[in-house]
Amino acid sequence: MRVQLRSVNDVIRDRRQPVPRVALAVDDRFVATSAGVTCNGAPVSVSDRADVAEFTIAPILRYGQDRGDEFGTLLCEVLRAFGDLRRFGSAQLTLGYVAGGMLDAAVSLQPRPNPRDTIAGVSMVEWAVGR
Question: What are the boundaries of each domain within the chain?
Answer without folding.
Answer: 2-128
